[in-house]
Amino acid sequence: MMKKIIKLNGDKIFKAVLNLAALTLSLLVIGIFITLLVSSFPSMMEFGFHFITGTTWDPVMGEYGALPFLVGTLITSFIALFISFPVSITISILLSEYLQSGVLYNYFKSSVELLAGIPSIIYGFWGLFILVPVIREFQIMFDIAPYGVGILTASLIMSLMIIPYSATIAYEVISLTPNDIKEAAYSLGATKFEVIRKIVLPTSASGIIAGVLLSLGRALGETMAVTMVIGNSNMLPDNIFAPGNTMASVIANEFTEATSEVYLSALIEIGLLLMIVTGIINLAGKYIIKKMTLGAD
Known about the structure:
Layout: H1 2-39, H2 41-47, H3 50-53, E1 57-58, E2 63-64, H4 67-99, H5 103-117, H6 120-141, H7 151-175, H8 179-187, H9 192-221, H10 224-229, H11 247-254, H12 261-296
Antiparallel strand pairs: 1-2
């Protein structure tokens, strides 16, 4: 009887700890949002909705429009996602379906894990000294203004940074595909490619999309590496080779220079906008995953 009571109490305590952890996390997110919202009030009262649609960012003249940074953030993130996704899927399929063990498997898997652990400042230095000159030569070749830095350069660096996240999650999800289903397909005469295309990928689709969302969230908030290679221009970019700015990079560049209340509030409002954009993309992604899961069932 005593053991049963202790067991029940232990279960209740464990459940209470889990509920407390979930509640704490929820309160933390709400607290961050409220803090950003309250600190953004001076900017909201001054500029209203024009803050989001405005294209001029001039602290000297007191004009603050965040549209160039919003556009720069979305463009660089989605270009990086577009570049990294095929590479991530290729790596995950290679590790889970072809190599599975051995020297090459350990080498590639360790390399992917190492990429995830490299600090972003190192990616920024590499991009600044190696990638920027290459992009500049490419622009000269095609008679494009040879900035070197810009939206495309930042996207390439970012794509390299987010590959480990989507590739690792896709690998774990693909590895969970039941062997019985694959063996049944092989017994019916299916080739390796047909098993991957018709069984492995459809079965793992929701998990792969979840990995893509995680890497997209990483891209949206990336700061240092992007700041070093995007050009830090406060103008709306007219092409992917032009210099630009993201919401995270403009905050990093100008936060210490914000002397007036409105200037500081405008930067905080950019942070609030970044949080809202990230939340919207995550909610949209969860909706897509849910639809894909229901469709598979």
